[in-house]
Amino acid sequence: MSDPVLLPSKASISRHEGVKFEDVRVHLLERKMGSSRRRFLTHLARSKGFIVEDTLSDAVTHVVSEESQASSLWKWLKGCGLKNLPMMHILNIIWFTDSMREGRPVAVETRHLIQVCVLATVSQYACQRQTTTENNNKIFTDAFEVLAESYEFNEMEGPCLAFRRAASVLKSLPWAVQCLGATEDLPCLGEHSKAVMEEILQYGRSFEVEKILSDERYQTLKLFTSVFGVGPKTGEKWYRRGLRSFSDILAEPSIHLNRMQQSGFLHYGDISRAVSKAEAQALGNIIDEAVHVITTDAILALTGGFRRGKEFGHDVDFIVTTPELGKEGHLLTSLIDQLEQQGILLFCEHQTSTFDMSKLPSHRFEAMDHFAKCFLILRLENSQVVGGLHDAEEGGRSWRAVRVDLVSPPIDRYAFALLGWTGSRQFERDLRRFARMERRMLLDNHALFDKTKKEFLAATTEKDIFAHLGLEYIEPWQRNA
Ligand code: UTP
Ligand code: MN
């Protein structure tokens, strides 16, 4: 039974009767408060002449919440698509009880505020955003990735990059988009992206994406390009010849597979399975030991997705070099010999260095670099992995094949190589775009060139490069753009 003294009279419940404070529009958040307590407090406030809005809209000026977790409350609020959120007071229950006691809306004090949260604008550049591996908008970004890939298969670079950019923006949000209004202030989301999001918000899925996923050409190209050494061009060629499956390819006598593709098919089961962090660490130990047999002062750094803190990857990427400039020249060759002698080298494509500082900045200051590198498939024993191999098949295999990339820059290029190979690909694309568009500088895996000063800017650490670019430093685990 409710306390009859505290229950406001029926007349004062009606919204605009007896309103004393026209400028203050309160909304009580039901989250954490519960509906019955909310109903009671609503009646109480209205009986004292307050306007209490039943729904959270842009008309609200004072939001009252009993939520103690400020960050999750803000995450939720940002997903509501309110334009006026930056102007609203987000208050704890103390403001409400103070106001009830005084019989008027009390002035907002710091102790009434639930976290002072600045609604920072989201940059169009991934290198000005922090993106961890936690993705709050996976339902949208997965859909965008399918669309981007489909455009890639059709050689439509523009829309492909547009969807990759849109996905990257959503990945950086610490909150989940709950309505289209919440995307209004976000960059890189075009009409098409928004239409896809609207479908997903309304139906939980996108029909356009489903159509692509069931498309024969998409499915076949997706399958073919999942083979190590097969890119969209080769995939397309095979598709146009009427081939639809691996057995079609392997049974076709006129098809010549290169060495990489042969290994790709041979180890398909293993290398299409994700590599775990423990497996990456085990490989790090193996390579660390091997490289130190060659030179005691060798430098080995884990890079790629695992450096960004990912739990799983499609390969493991390392940088190997020496502190003495020029001594890195034969490092990869010796390292490959060493792995071969250990009997763990299943495949190796070694590209010798074509790096020449005097030819920089090259016309295409771009993704491909000129450092010595090798693309490997290594044999990893179950016994070498803490906790054992990831996802080991039934029948207890004692080893698996893993893809490993090694790149060997000269030490004075180390910071650029590390930054370039840490990724993500989208982060790298935007670093270069930012350098070019905002700073008149050219950045790639080798160097940073200032077009205004017409000179190269030296760097020994990644922080130096960010500083040259006038960018706030972004940690590797915040580069999962
Ligand atoms: P990966 O393709 O290995 O991606 O390239 P990843 O982020 O580690 O993710 P996984 O492996 O799929 O889990 C790593 C980084 O190395 C750069 C890419 O731009 C990417 O940022 N890279 C790769 C180069 O700069 N040059 C290359 O030849 C290959
Ligand atoms: Mn990788």
From TrEMBL:
The keyword Metal-binding applies. The keyword Metal-binding applies. InterPro entries: BRCT_dom (IPR001357), BRCT_dom_sf (IPR036420), DNA-dir_DNA_pol_X (IPR002054), DNA/RNApol_mu (IPR027249), DNA_pol-X_BS (IPR019843), DNA_pol_B_palm_palm (IPR028207), DNA_pol_lambd_fingers_domain (IPR018944), DNA_pol_lamdba_lyase_dom_sf (IPR027421). It comes from the Eukaryota. It holds the Pfam family HHH_8. GO terms for biological process: DNA modification; double-strand break repair via nonhomologous end joining. GO terms for molecular function: DNA binding; DNA nucleotidylexotransferase activity; DNA-directed DNA polymerase activity; metal ion binding. Mg(2+) binds at residues 315, 317, 405. It is found in: Nucleus. Its cofactor is Mg(2+). Its EC number is 2.7.7.7. Residues 16-113 form the BRCT domain. SMART domains: BRCT, POLXc. It catalyses: DNA(n) + a 2'-deoxyribonucleoside 5'-triphosphate = DNA(n+1) + diphosphate. Keywords: Magnesium, Metal-binding, Nucleotidyltransferase, Nucleus, Terminal addition, Transferase. One of its GO terms (cellular component) is nucleus. It is an enzyme of class 2 (transferase). Template-independent DNA polymerase which catalyzes the random addition of deoxynucleoside 5'-triphosphate to the 3'-end of a DNA initiator. One of the in vivo functions of this enzyme is the addition of nucleotides at the junction (N region) of rearranged Ig heavy chain and T-cell receptor gene segments during the maturation of B- and T-cells. Gap-filling polymerase involved in repair of DNA double-strand breaks by non-homologous end joining (NHEJ). Belongs to the DNA polymerase type-X family. This is DNA-directed DNA/RNA polymerase mu. It comes from Amphiprion percula (Orange clownfish).
